[in-house]
């Protein structure tokens, strides 16, 4: 791909992200953003703060997955260093371009004296594994698009679990046990992220049973798929705008639009706050490591 093509794709992704943000802001304006915030009580905000803290702590699972990938590539590093490096670099995903978190880990790793090519391969493995992990959640959305007595939330979950199990065994037997561990870490993290979003839907008083169908796993899967599309969209920092548009499309008719907009806003607040918590954790680990405590 030529530099011009890469630049064009990045610009397109950035424009789509901006249009998505504008679209969401217009929706918020129509419904009244003040009304959205005022609908939450103090106890609700305490729960939301707890969810943000949980998301930040769950991000350690991402660092653990990266640590496993490094081990799979023959790079032996301290776990605390891996968490610190991942946390500090992860915050840069909000910089337009959607690649600076990987660039940051590459730079910090090379500063430690780790081989550059192996670090680059770790980024490739990370992107590949987490993208594949996210794509598997499409199986949970099958009841949303296929109307059949044989396709329901139970069968879609069995399919999802079966593919996760089979691919884990494949990585373990054919590739590397550490890659299988990293893959499982990504599945766990994405599941937690989807469950946090589903919790926000529940806080809105929405029912998971509509027309005799259970939408719990569908909502969880929809969030992960929207996250994945935001991840792979070039030029969209942290999937801002893209993720929200995909959620509005997938959950239209499942969740009331006003409630969905509120959850999207609070959900983004939780992920940003969680990333800040994770960054602070990495910063503290860096200070402790510098002082020789770890």
UniProtKB/TrEMBL annotation:
<feature type="transmembrane region" description="Helical">
    <location>
        <begin position="180"/>
        <end position="203"/>
    </location>
</feature>
<keyword id="KW-1133">Transmembrane helix</keyword>
<feature type="transmembrane region" description="Helical">
    <location>
        <begin position="127"/>
        <end position="150"/>
    </location>
</feature>
<feature type="transmembrane region" description="Helical">
    <location>
        <begin position="215"/>
        <end position="240"/>
    </location>
</feature>
<feature type="transmembrane region" description="Helical">
    <location>
        <begin position="12"/>
        <end position="33"/>
    </location>
</feature>
<keyword id="KW-0472">Membrane</keyword>
<keyword id="KW-0812">Transmembrane</keyword>
<feature type="transmembrane region" description="Helical">
    <location>
        <begin position="45"/>
        <end position="69"/>
    </location>
</feature>
<protein>
    <submittedName>
        <fullName>Uncharacterized protein</fullName>
    </submittedName>
</protein>
<feature type="transmembrane region" description="Helical">
    <location>
        <begin position="260"/>
        <end position="287"/>
    </location>
</feature>
<feature type="transmembrane region" description="Helical">
    <location>
        <begin position="157"/>
        <end position="174"/>
    </location>
</feature>
């Amino acid at each position: 791909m030529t530099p011009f093509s890469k630049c064009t794709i990045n610009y397109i992704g950035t424009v789509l992200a901006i249009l998505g943000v504008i679209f969401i802001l217009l929706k918020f304006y129509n419904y009244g953003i003040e009304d959205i915030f005022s609908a939450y009580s103090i106890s609700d905000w305490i729960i939301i703060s707890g969810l943000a803290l949980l998301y930040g702590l769950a991000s350690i699972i991402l660092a653990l997955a990266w640590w496993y990938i490094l081990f799979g590539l023959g790079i032996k590093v301290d776990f605390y260093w891996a968490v610190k490096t991942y946390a500090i670099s992860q915050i840069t995903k909000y910089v337009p371009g959607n690649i600076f978190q990987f660039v940051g880990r590459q730079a910090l790793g090379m500063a430690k004296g780790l081989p550059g090519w192996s670090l680059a391969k770790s980024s490739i493995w990370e992107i590949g594994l987490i993208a594949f992990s996210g794509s598997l959640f499409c199986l949970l959305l099958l009841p949303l698009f296929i109307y059949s007595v044989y396709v329901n939330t139970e069968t879609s979950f069995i399919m999802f679990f079966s593919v996760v199990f089979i691919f884990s065994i494949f990585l373990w037997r054919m590739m590397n046990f550490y890659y299988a561990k990293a893959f499982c870490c990504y599945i766990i993290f994405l599941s937690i992220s989807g469950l946090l979003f589903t919790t926000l839907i529940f806080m809105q008083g929405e029912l998971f049973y509509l027309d005799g169908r259970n939408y719990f796993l569908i909502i969880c899967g929809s969030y992960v798929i929207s996250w994945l599309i935001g991840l792979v969209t070039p030029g969209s920092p942290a999937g801002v705008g893209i993720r929200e548009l995909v959620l509005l499309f997938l959950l239209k008719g499942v969740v009331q639009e006003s409630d969905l907009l509120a959850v999207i806003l609070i959900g983004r607040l939780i992920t940003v706050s969680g990333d800040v918590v994770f960054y602070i954790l990495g910063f503290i680990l860096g200070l402790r490591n510098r002082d020789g405590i770890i």
